[in-house]
Each structure stands twice: as structure tokens, then as C-alpha cells.
């Protein structure tokens, strides 16, 4: 295939140049190599493409037919290569991102709308999934995750840290009282969402009695809904409950207790980070996620 392309490219250059010597100069080849490519092409196709003598070249009918079609094809290839190279330096083309349902609805949708407005040559496609780490099979450019698996073979970029805290509804705290220490959590109603939170609770309590878990779920949004309904104390990230805290629907519990922050990270294929659309998106997300959490 490479030889066929070289033969066609040489033929087009000969037809455009008018002489073999000029075509050879434009191709960066010797006169003998340029002439040989033309002869090989004519032999392969079984027709004469160019009438030639020591002074003049002219296309045969078959040569004109080939030149017209091949010229368009080479021009199209040049255009495609230019577009591909442009995407390495200018953000353009489709950008496929996957993240969790709650993150997309609560925070990311307006951020990506701003990004799309500032980058009109990029077409943003934001998808949601229960797990957003397997982008090799799904064909996404970026996965936005929270505490992703440590053994991922993908490139990982930390965008920001998302502080965690304990909180509860005012109704619950008025009814059951406000705990004064982590030891008091053993006699409170506590809501746990998923295995990661179970580990966080264990690390938080240390040698203290384990929390009295009255409700557990694998759905973070459901855990938040239970807390808003006054069902107990929940451990949430600032991203998830900042609006509830601002509105007074939830209040911090044991605010002096330090919990490990959740990392908001982007996962992408090695090398993809050099693409302008991916690089510009990651930079934009890092700025706006940090800004949003600082405001919270």
C-alpha cells in the first residue's frame, strides 16, 4: 500500500510539474527514482499515463482520468492531516466524557456548558454511569471519578480535593442532641453509603465503639435524602452537601474532626492528555472545581 501511494503521489507531482526533473525536485527524489515510480505505476495499471520525450510531457486520456481522481484524493488527505494536526494544538472535535450520575447532575452539567460556550469547535458529549473508570471499551476521552481504583492502567490527573464532613438535619439534632465527640456517635443514628464510607467510619472511630448504623445504602444520593429527612448523621463530601449547608437543611456535626478528603480525578488513555481538547478541558475543570469548592 505504501508503494502504491508513493507511485500515485509521484504521478500527480509529475503531472503538475510538467517535467520529470522538476517533479523529482519537489518530491526530494533522484530523477531515476521518480522515473522508476512512474514506470512501475504504468506497468501495474497496464496503461500509458504520460507521453514523454526529452522536452515535453503530456497526459494520455487514462492519465487525465487518474490525475483528476488522484488529485482530489491527495488534496482530501492533506486536508484531513491538517485537521488532525490542528486538533493537537487547537481544541476542536468531539469530546466524550463519562462520570457518575450524581456528579453530572449536581455540579458538572453547568461547568461543561460553560466550557462548550468558550470552545465552540468542541462538541461535548457528557454521559453518566454507575462506574466511570472503564473508558477503553467505551471509547470515552475522559472519565471523571471520585477515589478511583488505585490499580487503574489509565493516566490519572487530580483535579481537586473534595473535603468530607459529618452532617445531619436540624430536626434530627434537635430531637437527638448534638454529639460532642466521636464516642457519642455510638448512641446516634448513623447513615452509611458504600464500602468506602465503612472504612472511613472505622478509621474515624479508632478504638471507640463502632457507629450505630441504622440505615445503609450503595446510593450516595439516597443517603443524602435520608439525612435531609432527619434519619440520622451522614458522612458526605462538601460537593454533595454544600448547597444544603448554605440553606440550613443540613448542619455540620463534629466540625473539628478531620476526615480524609475525596479526590476528584480525571482518567484518560496515556498520550490523550496531549490532545488540545483534552488538555483544555482538564485545565478548565481544575480551575472551576477548585473555585466551586472554595466558594462552598
What is the helical fraction, as a range of percent?
40-55%
Structural class: alpha/beta
Strand content: 15-25%
CATH topology of the largest domain: D-Maltodextrin-Binding Protein, domain 2
Question: Biggest sheet: strands, sense, closure?
Answer: 5 strands, mixed
Taken in chain order, the helices and strands follow as HHHEEHEHEHEEEHEHEHEHEEH
Number of helices: 11
Shape: rod-shaped
Number of strand elements: 12
**Major beta sheet, strand line-up:** 4-3-5-12-6
Give the termini distance in whole angstroms.
59 Å
Could you tell me the mean pLDDT? Answer: 84
Question: Can you walk me through this structure?
Answer:
50% of the residues lie in helices and 21% in strands. With 296 residues, it is of the alpha/beta class. It has three domains: 2-89, Winged helix-like DNA-binding domain superfamily/Winged helix DNA-binding domain (Arc Repressor Mutant, subunit A, Orthogonal Bundle); 93-162 and 262-295, 3-Layer(aba) Sandwich (D-Maltodextrin-Binding Protein, domain 2); 164-253, 3-Layer(aba) Sandwich (D-Maltodextrin-Binding Protein, domain 2). The chain is built from eleven helices and twelve strands. Strand 1 (50-52) and strand 2 (57-59) form a beta hairpin. A five-stranded mixed sheet has the order 4-3-5-12-6, covered by helices on one side. A five-stranded mixed sheet has the order 9-8-10-7-11, with helices on both faces. It has a two-stranded antiparallel ribbon with strand order 1-2.
Amino acid at each position: 500500500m505504501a508503494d502504491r501511494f508513493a507511485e500515485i503521489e509521484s504521478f500527480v507531482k509529475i503531472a503538475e510539474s510538467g517535467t520529470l526533473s522538476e517533479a523529482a525536485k519537489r518530491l526530494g527524489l533522484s530523477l531515476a527514482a521518480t522515473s522508476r515510480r512512474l514506470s512501475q505505476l504504468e506497468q501495474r495499471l497496464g496503461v500509458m499515463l504520460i507521453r514523454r520525450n526529452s522536452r515535453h510531457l503530456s497526459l494520455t486520456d487514462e492519465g487525465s482520468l487518474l490525475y483528476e481522481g488522484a488529485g482530489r484524493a491527495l488534496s482530501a488527505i492533506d486536508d484531513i492531516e491538517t485537521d488532525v494536526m490542528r486538533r493537537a494544538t487547537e481544541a476542536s472535535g468531539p469530546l466524550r466524557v463519562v462520570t457518575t450520575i450524581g456528579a453530572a447532575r449536581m455540579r458538572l452539567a453547568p461547568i461543561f456548558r460553560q466550557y462548550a460556550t468558550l470552545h465552540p469547535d468542541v462538541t461535548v458529549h457528557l454521559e453518566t454511569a454507575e462506574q466511570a473508570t472503564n473508558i477503553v471499551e467505551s471509547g470515552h476521552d475522559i472519565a471523571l471519578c471520585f477515589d478511583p481504583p488505585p490499580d487503574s492502567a489509565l493516566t490519572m490527573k487530580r483535579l481537586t480535593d473534595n473535603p468530607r464532613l459529618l452532617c445531619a438535619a436540624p430536626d434530627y439534632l434537635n430531637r437527638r442532641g448534638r454529639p460532642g465527640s466521636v464516642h457519642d456517635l455510638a448512641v446516634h443514628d448513623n447513615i452509611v453509603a458504600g464500602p468506602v464510607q465503612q472504612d472511613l467510619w472505622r478509621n474515624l472511630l479508632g478504638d471507640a465503639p463502632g457507629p450505630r448504623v441504622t440505615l445503609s445504602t450503595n446510593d450516595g444520593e439516597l443517603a443524602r435524602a435520608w439525612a435531609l429527612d432527619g434519619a440520622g448523621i451522614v458522612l458526605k463530601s462538601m460537593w454533595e452537601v454544600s448547597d444544603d449547608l448554605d440553606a440550613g437543611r443540613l448542619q455540620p456535626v463534629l466540625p473539628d474532626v478531620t476526615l480524609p478528603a475525596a479526590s476528584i480525578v480525571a482518567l484518560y488513555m496515556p498520550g490523550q492528555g496531549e490532545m488540545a481538547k483534552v488538555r483544555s478541558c482538564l485545565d478548565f475543570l481544575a480551575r472551576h472545581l477548585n473555585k466551586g469548592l472554595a466558594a462552598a
